[in-house]
Design a protein that fits this description.
single chain; about 270 residues; alpha+beta; eight-stranded mixed beta sheet; about 25% helix
């Protein structure tokens, strides 16, 4: 069997088991509790409902994300100098190697990916000063989030949307990738709870794993910090009820967690 780095991420001979039978896992990882997992599931259910329903009539609580009108010019040429983000990398590059062959997803194969690094000084809760950073790239139909340091989910979702819309029509967006995940809660949940639940080990897993819409696993991932950030991006970018995160995919590249959220249009009468 070839190494994961040699395979396209939709390699058909490696179709994952979307809903394998769970195995008995005796103990949770110390960083996770059943209460935390239940919170992930509830929050993920909230985001699923907010995205799918045009209003809050059928929601357990009102949607907390508003449509985003942010543009890159607002960040890089603001009226107040203290809010300015500086671009310290801005170039067209190749596809991220973590995704393998981009052709199965009809993604570009050349230097058609705009890579952007932004930063702005921010103040921590303890009063210390450090850099807020956005690291990402965009190509037609896809947003790629690199390892983002000190950037919360709402900020990331708005900047990523603005980055994409600087080059492409937002209606063309189909995929959001979270590359080389280092967020502690999201990574720990997938690595130490979700994969062991099915007798899997992330670092040694050779397959692409698919977590289907409206399952417990899907909602749990959606309730993690990175899942909520992608949910916020969809809520900020599209009219509610017109799009759906149809599935979430996870895999490893050189032992690191990679994630893909697939966005589809909702057809009339779709459940």
């Amino acid at each position: 069997m070839e190494a994961p780095s040699k395979k396209p991420i939709d390699y058909k001979d490696q179709e994952p088991e979307a809903k394998a039978n769970p195995v008995d896992v005796p103990d949770l990882h110390p960083a996770m509790t059943n209460a935390m997992i239940n919170i992930f599931r509830q929050k993920g259910n909230d985001y699923q409902t907010w995205i799918n329903d045009p209003d809050d009539t059928n929601c357990q609580r009102p949607c907390i994300v508003s449509p985003s009108t942010l543009r890159l010019d607002d960040l890089m040429q603001p009226f107040a100098d203290g809010n300015r983000w500086d671009a310290y990398f801005n170039a067209w590059v190749d596809a991220p190697e973590e995704i393998g062959d981009p052709c199965p997803l009809d993604l570009p194969t050349g230097q058609d990916y705009h890579k952007l690094y932004l930063r702005k000084l921010g103040v921590e809760k303890d009063g210390s000063v450090g850099w807020n950073k956005y690291h990402g790239r965009v190509a037609h139909t896809a947003i790629f989030a690199d390892n983002n340091v000190r950037l919360d989910g709402p900020q990331w979702s708005q900047i990523a949307q603005a980055h994409y819309q600087d080059f492409f029509d937002i209606d063309s967006l189909k995929y959001v990738f979270r590359m080389t995940v280092v967020n502690e809660e999201t990574h720990t949940f997938v690595d130490k709870v979700l994969y062991p639940r099915y007798g899997l080990e992330l670092a040694g897993d050779s397959q692409l794993r698919t977590w289907l819409y409206d399952t417990d696993e899907y909602q749990e991932i959606m309730g993690t910090p990175l899942g909520k950030a992608v949910g916020a991006l969809v809520l900020g970018a599209f009219t509610r009820g017109t799009r759906r995160i149809s599935q979430i995919l996870t895999w490893q590249y050189d032992g690191d967690l990679q994630m893909r959220f697939d966005i589809s249009q909702v057809t009339l009468g779709q459940d």
